Amino acid sequence: MRQWKRWSWAGVVAVVAAGCGDEGSKPPPPFGNEPVRQEARLETFPGCEALEQHIEDTATKQMRAVLEVYKQYTYGGGRGGEAPPTVDAPQEDSAGGGGSPNDYTGTNNQVSGVHEADFVQNDGTRIFVLSGQRLYLHRSWPAEQLARTAALEVEGWPREMLLDPERNRLVITSAVSEPRPGSGSGGRVTDGPAVDCAGFGCGYGHGNTVKVTVVDVADLEAPRVMEQVYLPGGYLSARRVEGAVRLVVSDGFRWPADVRLYPDYSPGLFDNRIRLSAHIDALIQQNEQAIRAQTLAQWLPPGRRVTADGEVKPLSYDCTSFYRTNAPTGLGLVSVLSLNLDASESEPGRTSLVAAPGEVYASQDALYLAARHWWWWPEPGQTTHTYLHKFDIRDPDQATYVGSGTVEGYVVNQFAMDEHEGVLRVATTVELPREEVAGDGDAVWTPPETVNRVVTLREEGGHLKQLGRSEDLARGERIFSARFVGTRGYVVTFRQVDPLFTFDLSDPAHPRKVGELKIPGFSTYIHPLGDTHLLTFGEHRNEDGTWQDRALKLSLFDVSDLANPRETFTHQLGSMSSHSEALHEHKAFTYFPAKGLLALPFMDWDYNASDYWSGFRSELRVFRVDTATGFSPVGTVSVRDMYQAFNFQHWSWYWQPTVRRSIMADDYVYAISDAGLRVSHVNSLQTPLATAPFLPPAAGKPGPLEP
Q1: Which of 29, 235, 274, 494 is the most buried (most CB within 10 A)?
Q2: What pTM, to 2 d.p., does this model score?
Q3: Burial (Cβ within 10 Å: 0-12, 13-18, ≥19) of residue 575
Q4: Is the pLDDT of residue 504 over 50?
Q5: What is the mean pLDDT of residues 505-526?
Q6: At what angle do helices 9-19 and 48-68 cross, to 10 degrees?
Q7: Helix axis angle, 48-68 to 273-293, nearest 10°
Q8: Poorest-pLDDT segment among 102-116, 342-356, 553-567, 607-621
Q9: What's the angle, vertex CA 588, arms to CA 584 and CA 592, rounded to 5?
């Protein structure tokens, strides 16, 4: 699985500056860092001319920042003969009969009523799965009659989808590659979304266009494409509240094709400071001329819509619907696309922000974007700050900007944010100011020390004003998971042991840490069981934080007394090499309150096995969870034989030989993988009732659909 990650410009500067020696003094940066804006806000553009000016000013500054660093490279007698590093461009028992089950699980959503996109959707009687380049449709009830009814090829590489059962619509996002001016190779800056692929292998999924496909699934045997929307950029996240779908899209700047972000290597260039500096200055001037000459239409190519009858319509944008932040947050574009499923003939609304992408959180009424402050150059005294931007999403046709705020630190994921009765609660890890340490002619910065806290904010007059802040916690550690439930908050940090902190948030102006519990390991996901218990999943580690006794770990915490949280039960599973997608993806964690059942994807590998498939373990593990008795293993649903039938061993972002999701309905458990679906009765998980295999993949790419 190919994995890559775009480096931030500040990171590139820090690495190159710290790693290269210099016999003389280094030239000062061409411009200074901008201060943190405690009164953050978004500002609209009066028109297209101002929007283009801002894009070109920011692009020029970004280009200068990355090129100026090469003036600090090693010269004469050092590494003058080496070529510079390449820099990427700027992430009760049921028999299974009847018309529908009495109860079933859906996507593990953070907020009730706010549906999150995933590659699996279901409504109790139908299961939809994206695998490879296809949408698979299934009739899933009665359970023993599970069967695939149709397969629909999706253009590009599908990411996620949302199901609206009431309107019988699926909204599918996929990554599509289209020819666009400004893309290049080698030293040239390429276009495309600012997607961080460190957490997954982008593989064949990297594209420069988001495609949204709306499918009518009223007839399971004949799905119909109702609308297609193409928008430059890459998919980040999506939510649905009733018939209103919000898609968050990130886009990288489309630089002119001849812009270069590093000097070409030539003999004698890098061992002569004066010659190299003059070369870089000329390159900066050449790049800026190309940047200033590019038109707004080239910076922001329009999208398009394709109706059900094939008519193509341009998807225009209004320059006054773009916002800029008064604080530096890096180069990029983030758009919130509003798709009203009750008004399918209308053009989707779009609200855009000229800034780098970040975390996305949504309540039923508001959507929040969190983006970090942008430091152009590493300097002593720098700290991490995050800007929070709130949008009102009560209008199904448009996301309306409300206000912005600033918090010190960064948020680990969407669960570190939560809105309750108009108050936003945010858990942050704060990196304390770096200190400059004397080196051999170099400026070296010590790794940042950290503390953690909970901050509360409320919107007042277009600003997210801070109401209160907890004490600083767990110095030297960072937040691994967080969860807010009503007036309570829970935060897990880690360095060597796993402190669980409990918070009383009943007075938003005075968030208080009231309890703390330290145990080995850490939790990456917290699932509330009512108001009195927490169900968590993570890793067990030795008290010194080492891996020797590593295993996956389930825990039950009694938090009925916030001041005295107790770990009442634990269950370890797997070996040092075991893994579960639920460690980093909450949608892979399935808890069924009606039956007290928990299902987790599980993978392990026996290195002593005689062949690939006999050593490979891919299964769904099911547990009964009781706050009084703890965890009771129920059994497993294996899919190894399904992959053996394909005998296809190539892993990618779009095809993994593992169980990835699960669904439970009454007394039946469905295991979902890229090989297909399998259902078993909970009392006999090892004996499948029915299996619905997917079509086998070809090497490197799924094959054609069956006739």
Answers
A1: 235
A2: 0.88
A3: middle
A4: yes
A5: 94
A6: 20
A7: 160
A8: 607-621
A9: 130
